[in-house]
Amino acid sequence: MDSLTLFCTAGLLAGGLYWFVYVLGSAEQKGKRAVDLSSGSISREKVLDKYTQYWTFFRRPKEIEKAEKVPAFVDTFYNLVTDIYEWGWGQSFHFSPSIPGKSHKEATRLHEEMAVDLLEVKPGDRILDAGCGVGGPMRAIAAHSRANVVGITINEYQVKRARMHNKKAGLDSLCEVVCGNFMEMPFPDNSFDGVYSIEATCHAPKLEEVYAEIYRVLKPGSMYVSYEWVTTDKYKGENQEHVEIVQGIERGDALPGLRRYDEIAEIAKKVGFEVVREKDLAKPPSKPWWQRLKMGRIAYWRNHLMITVLSWVGIAPKGVVDVHEMLFETADYLTRGGETGIFTPMHMILCRKPQ
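The structure corresponding to this sequence follows.
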């Protein structure tokens, strides 16, 4: 091979690698690149150990039932997956109904704005995002409502990411983020004009405990809305396929156990709420929420190859490949849950704290 051919080949390879990592590798232009993947506050050399530790929660299922074990379990999970979620999904770690003619980004924004519209808050009101992640919904809701949004997440790395995004979006004057457990929140009684949680309270070992905390910090007469992960009336405990799907979702999403759709309102009433409205937002005329997962399969294999190469050359931490593979397997279980109709991530409940 002559020098010119060698030079051209090298140039093509270099250009292809740049395009693969920096163009295809960006997380929907959200500021996280493949070469920047980390595992939160977990040091590089401990990622694989922490991933192994994560799985021990499910190897010893009785431990998952102990409430004191769950916060550390969820914190470990989000240290492992936050960068991958943000890189491959975006800043809003949740699903939304598919809307004809709307992009995933637009459908996500509308789904978030609906939550705050249900709260009927005014500009300047103070509202709480219980389980805010890196703050995608918080920023959409603050921009839409002009309310002051306080987000709480148990994961310190997510707090740092959320604050960075808030500042970058020019919304840090409306958005505040604190690190804490939403079952023991550092807020005074009756201090919020509204509260929402978007696919977050599914991580609570006991839903009544987080609902009771939300009830405590909410002002009398104000509203709380939540989008819950639940099994539907189509789920049958004697059906082995159904059990496998639900267990796969629980393992891959750090859930102490999925709840039934008919438990949610009863729990809300038990802590004192008035239930105003309840609806599965995934039902028709909404289009399938899991289509986004199916459409992302090609992107997954591209991303998995990229992460494998980056890990092999020492750029990405060891263990990131395993975490990414776990999330792909979980996406398959979520898809099956949607297709069979036994699972929904969008069981909406709207509650009011009595005057």
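Residues 25-31 have pLDDT under 50 and may be disordered.
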